[in-house]
Amino acid sequence: MTGLLDKYATATVPRYTSYPPAPHLRAGFPAATYRDWLSRLDPARSLSLYLHVPFCRQLCWYCGCNMKLASRYEPVAAYVEALIAEIALIAGILPGRFAVSHLHFGGGTPTALEPDDLARVMENIRDRFDILPDAERAIESDPRTLTDAMIATLGALRFNRASFGIQEFDPKVQAAINRIQPFEMVARAVEGLRGAGIPNINFDLIYGLPHQTVDSLARTIAACLTLKPDRIALFGYAHVPWMAKKQRLIDEAALPRAAERAAQAASAASAITAAGYLAIGLDHFALPGDSLAKAAIAGTLRRNFQGYTDDAAETLIGLGATSIGRLPQGYVQNIAEPGAWARAVGDGVLPIGKGRAFAGDDRIRGYVIERLMCDGFVDLASAGTRFGQPADWYADALPLLEEMAQDGLLVLDDARLRMTELGWPLVRVAASAFDLYRRHSAARHSVAI
After folding, report:
1. What is the CA radius of gyration of the chain?
2. Is residue 21 within 8 Å of residue 36, measured between CB atoms?
3. pLDDT number for residue 188
4. DSSP one-letter string for 210-249
5. Sequence-separated (6 or more) residues with CB below 8 Å from residue 392
6. Could you report the per-residue pLDDT of 241-281, keeping only the tens digit for each?
């Protein structure tokens, strides 16, 4: 495997949470086009909402998210008012009252809001949308700043899933990424949330962090398993200091190399599956009774900007600064800078910063990439028939696919493509064979493993 790691694992490829990938959304996308897309949605079909809260109360050096350090609450309070105004703006454009099947608060740290402000946002959503009784209501949180009052509010608002960024419990690693978070702190937060009636808990772990080893990550996983989270996401640390400037505070010399990263990922995955979790896609794990595991078994697993999901809605509306939405016609992304985003909303203008309409063969390539990332296999001929493409539509992908097949990483049987067990960790590289945008772009991405 060492030779293959040298050959493929250091390739920089998108995470493929969308196609076209987010770096290829175009600046200056017309707000009028987004307005038209919204007005054409079918009220008979449910949609999903993603609300982005870019504020955190503490700075984590490894984080690549769009976030602001909230040393005072005044900017956060002003953001809440703009978020409520954007909810009203979007609802006023939609051609009817829509049902919501998934509701996700991400960040940043959404629980950096005051409990009353979170309740106000939820009230405004309920005033303009119908949240389905079985809808997933998910929120990301930080156990370092999660209060008892917020836990009680989450329970009262009937959230049914909460996510924590664990990353690593080793003190040396925590110090190197500026996230001091003892196990006992996380355990108290989990106990509090479950006591408030929030049944589903997700943990995020990261491999490839500075000073991290196979053994330190194994100890972290063993500790996490005692808390019995319903889902575990195991991400490779993406060191992109040219994009996330806070990562420049991390000592690059302390970062594990490709072979060490691969060993950490493999060892961690083995420990998690040995504990009874099902491997979901590339980097998620879930207990057999979890909805994500059921979707994977049923072949209905999807992939969006939150990672793997069981959300079947065709439309995802993003709210808040920098949030990304997906509609049947393409992608839109809100203005990233909270002040500029809020000013646009205040002027009654859809705060779009970037976007891209689907064109050419975007849909078939996006479909194939998603199925490969979710299922590990795809029938290229059937995909062509589904999207009305000629039988040889994927000819440009063959050179890389055939090379990976020769290396034992995938099997290409006529038009049926399947990743092997050896090749599965490199599925993003295989997916990149279908990515026309990557070939003609200087955009930089994280390494494959």
Report:
1. 21
2. no
3. 97
4. TT--HHHHHHHHHHHHTT--SEEEEEEP---TTT-GGGGG
5. none
6. 888 888 899 999 999 998 899 899 999 999 999 999 999 99
CB distance 283 to 15 below 8 Å = no
The closest alpha carbon to 432, from 6, 5, 8, belongs to 8
Rounded to whole angstroms, how far apart are CA atoms 352 and 358?
Answer: 17
Q: Look at residues 87, 92, 96, 23 and name the one whose alpha carbon lies nearest to residue 49.
A: 87
Q: SS3 of 130, please?
A: strand
Q: Which amino acid is at 77?
A: A
Total-model pTM: 0.93
Count the neighbouring beta carbons within 10 Å of the beta carbon of residue 151.
24
CB atoms within 10 A of CB 93: 14
The residue to which tokens 């295989």 are assigned: 430
**Summary count for the chain: helices (H), strands (E):** 16, 20
Tokens 């493993």 belong to 449
Question: Distance between CA atoms of 11 and 41, rounded to whole angstroms?
Answer: 39
> Is there a contact between 333 and 327 (Cβ–Cβ < 8 Å)?
no
Distances (CA, A) of 410 to 95, 103, 372, 391, 422: 46, 36, 11, 21, 8
CA-wise closest residue to 439 among 49, 37, 11, 132: 11
Sign for the pseudo-dihedral over CA of 70, 75, 78, 84: negative
* Nearest Cα residue to 78 out of 52, 117, 126: 117
Beta bridge partners, 447, equal: 12
Alpha carbons 177 and 246: distance in angstroms, whole number: 10
Q: Which residues contact 103 (CB under 8 A, 6 or more apart)?
A: 48, 49, 51, 125, 131, 135, 136, 137, 138
Q: What is the pLDDT of residues 375-388, one digit of tens each?
A: 999 999 999 999 99
Could you tell me how far CA 437 lies from the centroid of its own chain? 20
Give the pLDDT mean for 353-378.
97
Task: Give the type of residue at 421.
Answer: E
pLDDT digits (tens, 9 = 90+) for 89-108: 999 999 999 999 999 999 99
For residues 410 and 404, the answer to whether their CB atoms sit within 8 Å is: yes
Closest CA to 373 of 324, 309, 328: 309
What phi, psi does 297 have (nearest 5°)? -65, -40
Residues in the chain: 449
Could you tell me the two tokens for 143?
């156990």
Check residue 2 and give its pLDDT: 61
Fill in the amino acid letter for 367: Y
